[in-house]
Amino acid sequence: MSVYPGVDPVLRALHGRVPLAVFTAADTAAAEILLEATGIRRFFAHVVGADRVSQTKPSPEGLLLMARLLLVEPTRMAYIGDGPADIAAARACGALASAAAWGHQFDATVPADQVLEQPADVLRFIRMAPLAASAVPLDLVSELDSDGDSHDGGSG
Fold this sequence. Notes:
Elements: H1 7-14, E1 21-23, H2 28-37, E2 46-48, H3 61-70, E3 78-81, H4 84-93, E4 96-100, E5 114-116, H5 121-128
Parallel strand pairs: 1-2, 3-4, 4-5
C-alpha cells in the first residue's frame, strides 16, 4: 500500500507551512489506519470521515467541519480530490475545487476550478496564490473510495 507517486514530497514541502486535513467518504478510523500505514498521517492536522457528518460528499458538510477545525473560512480553502463528488462538495461550500487528475476517479468532463495534472502542481498553485494558501485541506490520498476499499497507489 502506498500513496500516489509524487504525493509524499508535496506533503513534506507543505508540512508546517500550510494546515492540511483530509475529508473522505470512508470511515474516520479506516482513514486514520490507512494514513498511518502509508506514513503520511503526521502531515494532517485533522482527518474527517463520513462517520463524523450526517451527509457525506457531495454535501459540503464535511468541508465546512474541516474549515471550523482549521479555523479558516471555507472560501479560503482549496479542496483537492479526484472524483465528481469532491468537486461538488468543494463548490457547495465555496472552496476552490481542485481536480486531482492522477486519481482513479478523475473525470475530465466534470468542471473544476483547476485541474492539477500531478501532485507537484499543488506547490506551483500555492506559489502563484499565496493568500489563498492559508489553509489547503488536501484529499491527496485517494486510497479509500466511497465504499472504503483500499487502492494501491492509484492503479485503480
